[in-house]
Design goal:
- The protein is α/β, with parallel strands linked by helices.
- It is built from five helices and six strands; from the N terminus they run αββββαααβαβ.
- The protein starts with a helix and ends in a 5-residue tail after the last strand.
């Protein structure tokens, strides 16, 4: 949550949560984003993925395990990214960026995006100390 607030600038709600931006196309298709801005006339939709160490620490998973076709992590990421890209396209275009603070998970996302030739910018960013 701190990552979402830091990288999007969106303030936390009174309950401590950072609100998700839900975007709906005219046909009802919806996707959630962590942030939105206009940069040089282009709509930029942001998804922030913070510390993903839970997948390694508690599940003992490696990047190889995360990338297996039956991995719930991979399936959730595919679904989320596909919904986001579909909504952006239906809105007339824009750019999707994923900001990932865990370098191992960022590499996993980068490989997925590259292998599937997806129009997603993946950035590795660390939180300031």
């Amino acid at each position: 949550m701190a990552e979402q607030q830091h990288f999007t600038g969106i303030e936390r709600l009174p309950d401590g949560l950072v609100p998700e931006l839900i975007v709906r196309a005219d046909d009802g298709t919806a996707a959630e984003f962590d942030g939105y801005r206009v940069e040089r006339g282009e709509s930029v939709f942001t998804e922030v993925k913070g510390n993903q160490s839970i997948w390694y620490k508690f599940h003992g998973w490696s990047i190889e395990r995360l990338a297996q076709k039956d991995s719930q992590v991979l399936l959730k990421m595919q679904d989320q990214m596909n919904r986001q890209l579909a909504v952006i396209e239906k809105l007339g275009g824009g750019r999707l960026e994923w900001v990932v603070t865990d370098p191992r998970f960022a590499k996993f996302v980068e490989v997925y995006v590259d292998e599937n030739d997806l129009p997603v910018d993946v950035f590795i960013r660390t939180m300031p100390d």
